[in-house]
Amino acid sequence: MNDYLSGLGALLEQYDVLGAFWTNIQLTFWGALFALVIGTMLALMRISPIASLRWAGATYVNVFRNTPLTIIMTFLVLAVWTQLQVSLAADFNSNFFRLAVIGLAVYHAAFVCESIRSGVNTVPLGQAEAARAIGLSFLPAAQLVILPQAFRGAIAPLGNTLIALLKNSTVAAAASVSWETASTMKTMLEFNADYRWEIFALFAIGYVILVIPIGLLTTWLSQRLAVKR
Amino acid sequence: MDQSTPTTGQPAADETVDAPTSDRVLGAPLVELKHVNKHFGALHVLQDIDLTIHKGEVLVVIGPSGSGKSTLCRAINRLETIDDGSIAVDGKTLPEEGKALAQLRAEVGMVFQSFNLFAHKTVLDNVTLGPRKVRGMNKKDAEELARSLLDRVGVGNQAGKMPAQLSGGQQQRVAIARALAMQPKVMLFDEPTSALDPEMVNEVLDAMVALAEEGMTMIVVTHEMGFARKAAHRVVFMADGQIVEEAPPEEFFTAPKSDRARDFLSKILTH
Hints:
heterodimer; A: 229 residues; mainly alpha; MetI-like fold; 10 helices; flat; B: 271 residues; alpha/beta; 4-stranded antiparallel β-sheet; 23% strand; disordered N terminus; transport (chain A); ABC transporter permease subunit (chain A)
């Protein structure tokens, strides 16, 4: 028993598990931030009165939503960085990290866009008509009247997207971010097969601990911020 | 179709209409609809509509549901597009899109059947939004203006509340204040009392009558004949997308000329 515990202890000392989780949290934070910005712009395009913008927005969503994230990540490393020699930072690790953030952002932006659009659908048409009737053109009407209400109606689906993004941040392994959780777990398993169940449980529980608060928070927020009609 | 203009129709109104409206002189044409057509699919909802509303005139549009009266009202600030013909407000033809259209809409006040107050903003913010963001008024002036307008329609003490906390009648009066805050040239009312509980209808109509007495140009789609008699210069009766009859209110309600109007009035007056 003592051997077992000391072995497990040595394993945790040898690998930086907390650091690995911290990497995924950072990937999630930056990925979510940029995905929210890009996704909001896409949603604006998709509800805009200009047909070509609507078309471009819809095309983006259909392309990125239907492309596996692994392929996007691999493309960024093999095509954008290796072939096109687009480097985002001088040192290797920062460069891979940033490429991974871009991959996560452009992919999840498609889902953010659709979440916001579902929020827009919770806003009655009369709100947009009233905004237009007092002389607001499309962008001010969207900014002042439609989006503030749409975001409140989109909190639950946006929360789902954030949860997916957090878990998908492990795909950063495909963009050579080798110090994140999935890669760390794989290395640990490879060299410590005796502890395979414990290692699996460790990472699974880690993600559950991270994800449950997001679900609770978004449920609470969506009720608290709901627009009363 | 009888297209007598209000300037020729007005002397007749002078003889029959009560004091508050009879002594008013109508100004130049403000809203002009010429040969306006609109289809919803196969349905021809506006059929070659010609209509001129003069400055200071209060026009009531009446008719059975599906007659096109709401569409007509909404077309005047282009919430509904038209297929052909032209609509001009104060001599300017309605622009198709963009900034020019937004500017024109700012000068046309609109009050909706379902109030459509901005649900995430307080009553005060509902009224100040237009003046601040469209007219570029500073916050203090806009709030001063908003409070005076809210007082005028009798909801000054509700300024800090959210729309959902107000009764329907109060919401609709806030909506009137919101439209007035843009200092519009003409006000459109699209069945403003149809969604209200009966006991709240009068508070809204009173606000509208007061507005009419101040000389506001108004186009009102309504079935409230009390309002039409009290405040309107002219009643336009629509059926099946056409203007069937137009007359001063007393004349229209007591002696309608067309069978359609007689039929319609008999249905709404028997109860």
